[in-house]
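Example record for the data management plan.
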Amino acid sequence: MVCRPGTALAAVGVIGAAIVLALVGLARTPAPATGGEAAPLLGFRIRTWYRGLLAPLEAVLVGWRIHPDAITSAQLATSVVAGAAFAAGWMFLAGWLTILAGTLDILDGGVARRAGLAGARGALVDSLVDRYAEFATFVGLGSYFRQSWVLLAVAIACFASLMVSYTRARAEGLGLEMQVGRAQRPERYVILGFGAWISDLVEHLRCGIGSEPTHAVLAVAVVALAVISAWTAVERARHAVRALRVRR
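Corresponding structural encoding:
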C-alpha cells in the first residue's frame, strides 16, 4: 500500500465540505408524511432529499431517451467492478462505486416512472439485477477477507441481505404490503460504500505507523451490516407471519 496521508487529509476536507452542504440541503427538505411507519436507518427525510437531488438528472436522462434497462445494466456492471475493486483491496474506489451503484438503482426506477415505462416487466428485471449486483459485491468482499474471521460476517451479511429482499418479494406475492425493516437496500449500499472509503482514508492516515493495512473500519461495517440485515429479515418474516395469521 502506497502511503498518501496528505491526499487523505485533502479528501477528508472535501468530504467534510460536502457533508456540510448535504446537511444544509436536508434542513431545507420537509419531512414527508409517513403515517406512523417505522423509519429505516437512513430516515425518510434523507431519502426524500436524495431523490430530489437526483430529480434533475432523471429529467435529463429522459430527455436523452436513455432507457431504464440501460441504467439497470450500468448498475450491474458498476457492482461487478466494485466487487473486483474490493477483491483487489482498492477500498476507496470500491466504496464510491458501491454508492454509484446504489444511485443508479434509484435512477432506473425514477427514469422509468418519468418516461411512462414503469411496469411489471421492469420491476422484475430490476429486482433480479439487484440480487446479482449485491452478490457480485459480496463476492469481492469475501475474496478480500478470505483469510480473516470477517469472511463469516461477509457470508452472513450476503445471506441476510438476500433474505431481506426475498421475504419482501414472497410477502408481496401473497398480497401483503412489506416496507418494514431498518436495513433496506439503500442502507446496505450506504453502510458498505461509506464504510469502505472511510476505511481507506483511515488506513492512509495511519500507514506511517508501518503496519499492514487491516481495514478494521470496513470489517466493523460488514459486521454491522450482517447484524442489522439479519434482524431486518427476521423482523419482516415476523411481520408477514402475523399479518397472514390475522387474515386467516
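Summary line stored alongside the record: The CA atoms of residues 5 and 32 lie 41 Å apart.
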